[in-house]
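ESCALATION

Customer reports they have been waiting on this structure for their group meeting. Please prioritize. Original submission:
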Amino acid sequence: MTAENSATPTAPIALGGTALALLGVAAFSLTFPSTHYALTGFGPWSTVTVRAVLAAAVAGAFLAAGRAPVPDRAHWPGLAVVVGGVVVGFPLLTTLALVSTGTSHAAVVVGALPLCTAALGSLRTGVRPSRTFWGAALAGAAVVVAFALGQSGGAPTGADLYLFGSLLACAAGYVEGGRLASVMPGWQVIGWALVGALPLSLPAAAVAVSLEPAHLTGQSVGGLLWVSVVSQFLGMLVWYRGMARIGVAKASQLQLAQPVLTLVWSSVLLGEHLGAATLPAALAVLVCVAVTQRAR
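Update from on-call: job pushed to the front of the queue and completed.
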């Protein structure tokens, strides 16, 4: 029985699922700084489409090496949601936002993603977390939102429209991918989604690259490779597997720590200034994560 349809997963399964989900969070925390690097040499549309094509190439190699069977016809609608959410929607909307806003601002706005994922996951899977769970989740989201407003001076930017749209897109992709990962390996879920998107991403990449000038540097290429190979495929692989073991709602709350990690990377890698509220916010978020992990 999978973690999503089991009320009380065993301790080893829960621990392993949590570890996998945390690896995914660590990979995702570098996505915005890496996208910033990629945008120094590539246009936004080239960044998004080439990212999808490169990730599909890596995923295709994994699928071929593992002799992964083609998913049943019943699974392709769910895979289409994954494509729309995490292959196209989230990367496109966040990349467009990062053209005009900093990674730290984007990180804290997208910090509301766990709550969106838990809410959609509850509706999609029929799982009903406890009041304690929802209380801690709402508290964590409130901390993230307050931190976001504090960092931006209390005034949301125009890029927030892209970021808010990315929340819904990504949450839908996470939930459907987590559900599919309970019936097929997580690496096959994201792998087939990426390969299935090639008829769209490949011609789109050809057009984008022909229209947007590229300036190849170690920084821009490195950033593009990270978001393609790690953020888009390897991170999603362990993330979906973790969700399949411990459930969509609980796994999603681990992402409350992601904005804080991204802020650290933004400071270390990009030199963005972090305010004095960073450490208190980090501690508050981690407390909320701990509570949601203990709540049934």
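Sent to customer with the following note: Confidence is low (pLDDT under 50) at residues 1-7.
Escalation resolved.
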